[in-house]
Amino acid sequence: MRSLPARRTAAVALAAAASVVALAGPAFAHVTVNPGSAEQGGYTAVDFRVPNENDAAGTVKLEVNLPLDHPLASVRTQPLPGWTSTVEKAKLDKPIKVHGNDVNEAVSKITWTADAGVKVAPGQFQEFRVSLGPLPTDADSLVFKALQTYDNGDVVRWIDEAKDGQPEPAKPAPVLKLTKATSADGHGVTASATPSAAADGHGTGHGDAAKNDAASDDKASDSTARVLGVVGIVVGVIGTAVGVLGLRRRNGGSAS
Question: Using CB atoms within 10 A of its CB, is residue 173 exposed (0-12), middle (13-18) or buried (19+)?
Fold first, then answer.
């Protein structure tokens, strides 16, 4: 009879460990914008990083919606072999001023569609690069709601916005944080702009590539630390369960 509580304890411990892993897994599979921050008022280049989290299907389309409450006058995609990008524009309710000129429309959506035979396979990810600007000076972030389509017809809607003081939503929208500008080159271009943004005709600082690489390294380090933390928790729970089982067995042997 003593073995029943021991088995029950072990089952609860293993269930807890499985729950920890299940909760931690999706955190590493979000669609994100990288680097995650840029300076207000400048131009930058970002990658929309799309991991494939479906073990039985491949990603064949990505739709990214750009915010029209803070419209971006210049949006350009970088060619990606095997994928075709299309850009949709919308007329603005109120024109915006860019370098002294009125801009009456802005890009509202970018869609990347895989060519025949191309997809982001299970266990892989793809990055879709875009240059953006000028970034608004009256906002601290830009939200890019995204839709990820698989070749089996499934669509994952990365559109939920995080709220202060609340847990991260299950399908968060990619967010680009905007920081106060620290320098400018006279064209409204700050040091946050990457060399790729030069396609817009605005000069950029050479130090930005290192800054973006450092940001990517920080993200990778953070993900690694989180993975190791989760593994440590799981190992600890399983170790506790094994210890309880051993103690039960010793007590059972002594009683007999």
Answer: buried
CA-to-CA distance for 77 and 109, rounded, in angstroms?
11
Contact 70, 123 (CB under 8 A): no
pLDDT tens for each residue of 96-125: 888 888 889 999 999 999 999 999 999 999
**Could you tell me the end-to-end alpha-carbon distance of the chain, in angstroms, rounded to an integer?**
12
DSSP assignment letter at 200: G
The Cβ of residue 8 has, within 10 Å, a number of other Cβ atoms equal to: 10
Task: Name the residue among 119, 115, 93, 116 with its Cα closest to residue 106.
Answer: 93
Q: Are 187 and 203 in contact (CB under 8 A)?
A: yes
This prediction has a pTM of 0.65
Which tens digits make up the pLDDT trace of 208-220? 444 444 444 444 4
**Cβ-count burial 115-148 (b if 16+ within 10 Å, e if not):** eeebbbeeeeebebbbbbbbbbeeeebbbbbbbb
Give the Cα separation of 58 and 48 in Å (integer): 17
Q: What are the beta bridge partners of residue 84?
A: 113
